[in-house]
Recover the amino acids of this structure.
């Protein structure tokens, strides 16, 4: 079986983890702090906080911004459930908007229509590693009429004076937009290091702070760091030193910290990340070179003008396919021992969101993308021969089921 996305763990990562395991300090400590600094240097943002998941990061930022019952947060309907669930955890309403007609990412035109006086945050999602249209989104929240609609309800919201843009960049570490990396493109960006991501720590995530002045990102980092560890005024490392045992609790915080064991994997992967992305790009181009000759294939645009993907998910759309044809093609592919996937089922198709009043008919572009979509295997140790096997299998499966 050709797997879909097994993790790549090099000997260097294993050695780095072993070193931490033998060091006498395995929870949050110096390695996590080093990983945070390296991510900041890599992305070009102001300050980065590592956590145990992207989900934790998204929720922590919403809580910090004071998102609560009665507020609205604009998200794409085409995303993973984490993007919506964190909004609901805060008691606020996710407002799900449609994708662009020719692009899975959130449509700026639809964002504009969805903004109301209740809108506090927009969460664009860089699907498959392709950055959203951030020039347009950042310009939109700064438009005078849109700023006037914004109703600040606490000091932080007052200071920003507009809707917050928090990118869900779970897929897009290393992607660029007008030459700048994700992390430095919006107010706040959240990355995921989950097991299937390009850069993994098995589970993990990070908040990249890049808020404009007069925000002090160092101070916000310190505050979020406290919130991520039970509201304690000191972390375990600071408490472990001489005269350091006494601490205070400043708020009912969360338990979201990243451990040094996981950060060690991250530090190692970041060193190799350039090569990891190059390998993924190579696989993407083999797929595209093969499928561009097929009249049934709609190929992903991973390097459209002024953008470059992180090459996270390669997905091909089967032109004119409906859901049942796409599903039959997937079944045939699996019968031939190749693991494929669908990214994603738009949220209004799923029970919980349907029960909460979301309707797939409100997001026709998202449904149309989904019904035709198949995601193909991409992983660091994948050989060109395996890529060719996937290509042959997909072509066979499409021909078998379309005729
Ligand atoms: C778009 C998107 N957002 C958020 C997440 C959540 O990431 P994590 O598992 O690190 O919490 C994922 C995970 O797959 C995702 O795909």
């Amino acid at each position: 079986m050709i797997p879909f996305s097994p993790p790549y763990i090099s000997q260097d990562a294993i050695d780095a983890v072993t070193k931490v395991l033998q060091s006498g300090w395995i929870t949050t400590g110096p390695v996590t702090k080093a990983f945070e600094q390296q991510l900041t240097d890599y992305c070009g943002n102001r300050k980065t906080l590592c956590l145990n998941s992207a989900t934790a990061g998204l929720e922590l930022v919403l809580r910090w911004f004071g998102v609560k019952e009665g507020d609205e947060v604009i998200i794409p309907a085409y995303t993973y459930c984490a993007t919506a669930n964190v909004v609901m955890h805060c008691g606020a309403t996710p407002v799900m908007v449609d994708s662009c007609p020719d692009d899975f990412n959130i449509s700026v035109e639809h964002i504009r229509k969805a903004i109301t006086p209740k809108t506090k945050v927009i969460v664009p999602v860089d699907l498959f590693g392709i950055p959203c249209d951030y020039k347009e989104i950042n310009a939109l929240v700064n438009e005078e009429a849109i700023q006037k609609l914004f109703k600040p309800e606490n000091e932080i919201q007052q200071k920003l004076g507009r809707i917050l843009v928090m990118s869900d960049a779970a897929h897009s570490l290393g992607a660029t937009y007008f030459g700048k990396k994700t992390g430095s493109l919006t107010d706040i960006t959240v990355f995921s290091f989950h097991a299937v991501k390009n850069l993994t720590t098995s589970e993990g995530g990070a908040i990249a702070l890049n808020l404009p002045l007069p925000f002090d990102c160092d101070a916000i980092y310190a505050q979020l760091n406290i919130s991520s560890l039970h509201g304690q005024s000191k972390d375990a490392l600071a408490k472990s030193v001489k005269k350091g045992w006494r601490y205070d609790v400043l708020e009912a915080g969360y338990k979201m910290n990243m451990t040094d064991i996981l950060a060690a994997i991250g530090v190692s992967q970041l060193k190799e990340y350039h090569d990891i992305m190059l390998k993924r790009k190579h696989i993407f181009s083999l797929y595209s070179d093969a499928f561009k000759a097929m009249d049934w294939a709609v190929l992903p645009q991973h390097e459209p003008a002024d953008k470059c993907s992180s090459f996270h998910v390669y997905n091909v759309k089967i032109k004119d396919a409906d859901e049942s044809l796409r599903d039959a093609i997937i079944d045939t592919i699996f019968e031939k021992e190749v693991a494929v996937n669908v990214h994603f089922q738009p949220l209004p198709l799923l029970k919980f969101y349907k029960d909460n009043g979301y309707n797939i008919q409100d997001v026709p572009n998202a449904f149309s993308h989904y019904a035709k979509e198949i995601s193909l295997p991409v992983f660091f140790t994948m050989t060109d021969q395996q890529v060719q096997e996937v290509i042959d299998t997909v072509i066979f499966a499409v021909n078998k089921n379309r005729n």
Notes: Residues 275-402 form a domain with the Aspartate Aminotransferase, domain 1 fold (CATH 3.90.1150.10). The chain has two domains: 11-271, 275-402. The first strand starts at residue 47 and ends at 51.
